[in-house]
Specification:
8-stranded mixed sheet, 22 strands, about 35% helix, about 20% strand, alpha/beta
Length: about 550
């Protein structure tokens, strides 16, 4: 049997490509069919030449290099390249120059391609997924999804056939004709289909190609792939950091029994929420206009000052930082959060965060994945201790996205003013408000402790974390936590611009080793996620998921 080739598309990102080639070598890929696009302009010529030199230098497998004499752009390059390969090979794996995968990913895809080669219900296989769209309760097994993938995927010539017969809009109409709404798997897709030709993209056509034929894509139980190109150089993925995965785990074992081709019943609902249009961004339209008329050397400082949250100073203690800021117990903040929460409760907006309202669907958070997984396994109500949970914003964002019938007890611990407002206007049979942890756990230990953007705003965050860990919950989730990358913890003042809401208060960037030590050895770090919030120099924002060790 001839080897299944990797079809590799590259342009002008040699540093990224070098990492990808190392990844392909570690995956023992035997054959690379590379398509190197031509330079858009003289500015890219040197990077294009360096990219091609890297491909020519590969000596650990066979490489057949096609060097485009002119720039096709990503969409046309992929469509033309895969069509050429599909005319000569029955099966293939498609890879781009900014995607890496763990060892074993190529072998896993090839095994799946061999398993389903003769089953026309299956149109593709991918090594990528994300907790946002992974159904609960998979127990390490792959699953089928009607929405296909464009980040490290494999297919067959039979499935690619017809891809060039009409663009994404034509295929969308074909899917509509068989009764599938255009936005059934995300409101992002119709908009992308309308922009396919203008933006020179290709993946949305591949997705509607699946929908039009009722085709399925096999996904792994967890992602083997990560995108390393979330930066301004990216052709189509710049800024899409909300889809960055946690640290990659080793490849799952190749199944001894593969699943029958049938879509998992949770997939459509997951995609319809998670791939919806991006929520409104305060000040976004004005920034776009300014960026068109002002050079970045002038504009960037203005954006930082008036449109972005910023952190300043390195204070010796909490009292000094609080004197420089305003504190988080301000009556003004409570009034703003109360007004925003009422809008959410009354259906006027989708969700709120720190008193700022958003019209679009709420973003995915690690807590959502944790709660889905626990709810799928647990008998009886799932109990959450939401420390610093405001007026129940986390509860409202997550509740509607849990499976129907999930029993929930959500206990918020907050400052007295928030507790009084919460009890008066938002409490229900599931959502309760308490002034102390002791009051919140009087009926038993919670299953999950949620700390969402709260620890950095406490005078002694590590002491609080230790006290909460002593409760013995199964899982602790910390989100929106800042860490200093070196030099120990740093105490700053966080300034929120008037374009969002004017406020300032103390904020920690914690020492990572001390943070992990606060929960060890009772808990181990199970998963870690990067966060999209732009940190100050020397800082980073991370979300961490801890599980209780068996010994405790």
């Amino acid at each position: 049997m001839s080897p299944i080739p990797v079809v590799l598309f590259a342009y002008a990102r040699p540093a990224h490509l070098a990492r990808v080639l190392t990844c392909l070598r570690d995956n023992r890929v035997p054959l690379i069919l590379a398509y190197a696009d031509g330079a858009k302009s003289g500015d890219d010529a040197a990077a294009v030449a360096e990219t091609r030199a890297l491909l020519r230098a590969v000596d650990w497998c066979e490489v057949r290099l096609t060097e485009r004499p002119a720039n096709l752009g990503l969409g046309r390059n992929v469509l033309a390249g895969v069509t050429e390969v599909a005319a000569r090979h029955e099966a293939f794996v498609v890879w781009e120059e900014d995607l890496i995968a763990v060892p074993g990913a190529y072998g896993w895809i090839c095994a799946a391609l061999q398993q389903y080669a003769g089953d026309e219900r299956v149109m593709s296989v991918t090594a990528w997924t994300h907790p946002r769209v992974t159904p609960a309760g998979l127990d390490g097994a792959p699953h089928f999804d009607a929405r296909a993938e464009c980040w490290v995927w494999g297919s067959w010539a039979r499935a690619w056939r017809g891809m060039n017969e009409g663009d994404a809009l034509v295929k969308m109409q074909a899917a509509l004709a068989r009764g599938l709404p255009a936005d059934a798997y995300g409101s992002d897709l119709p908009a992308m289909a309308a922009q396919e030709v203008r933006k020179n993209i290709w993946a949305v056509r591949w997705l509607y190609h699946h929908f039009a034929q009722s085709g399925l894509c096999l996904r792994p139980p967890w992602s083997m792939v990560e995108h390393i190109g979330f930066d301004p150089q990216a052709t189509n993925a710049a800024g899409a950091t909300s889809w960055a995965n946690p640290s990659l785990r080793p490849a799952p074992p190749i199944p001894s029994t593969w699943p029958d081709p049938a879509e998992h019943p949770a997939c459509r609902a997951l995609w319809s929420v998670e791939a919806a249009a991006t929520a409104a961004n305060p000040g976004g339209l004005l920034r776009k206009v300014l960026r068109r008329i002002l050079p970045s050397v002038w504009l960037d400082p203005l954006v930082d000052r008036f449109f972005r949250v910023r952190w300043e100073g390195h204070y010796a203690d909490w009292s000094a930082a609080k004197a420089a800021g305003g504190g988080y117990d301000s009556d003004t903040i409570l009034a703003r959060v109360l007004a925003a929460s009422r809008q959410v409760r009354d259906g006027q907006v989708s969700y709120e965060r720190d008193g700022v309202v958003f019209a679009g669907p709420p973003p995915w958070t690690p807590a959502l994945t944790v709660l889905r997984e626990l709810a799928a396994r647990k008998e009886g109500p799932l109990t959450v201790l939401d420390f610093g949970g405001s007026l129940g914003c986390g509860y409202r964002r997550i509740r509607l996205r849990l499976a129907a019938g999930t029993a929930l007890r959500w206990n918020v611990v907050e400052q007295p003013g928030f507790v009084a407002a919460g009890r008066r206007e938002f409490a229900n049979e599931e959502l309760k408000f308490f002034p102390t942890v002791r009051d919140a756990v009087v009926n038993g230990v919670p299953d999950v402790i949620l700390l969402s953007s709260v620890l950095p705003y406490l005078p002694r965050p590590l002491e609080t974390l230790k006290e909460l860990a002593a409760l013995g919950a199964d899982v602790i989730v910390t989100e929106g936590t800042g860490f200093a990358q070196k030099g120990g913890a740093r105490l700053t003042v966080q300034h929120v611009p008037a374009s969002i809401h004017r406020a300032s208060y103390p904020c920690w960037f914690l020492d990572r080793a001390e943070f992990l030590g606060a929960v060890s050895p009772k808990y181990r770090l199970e998963a870690e996620y990067g966060e999209a919030t732009r940190p100050p120099a020397g800082g980073e924002f991370r979300a961490l998921v801890f599980t209780r060790t068996a010994a405790t």
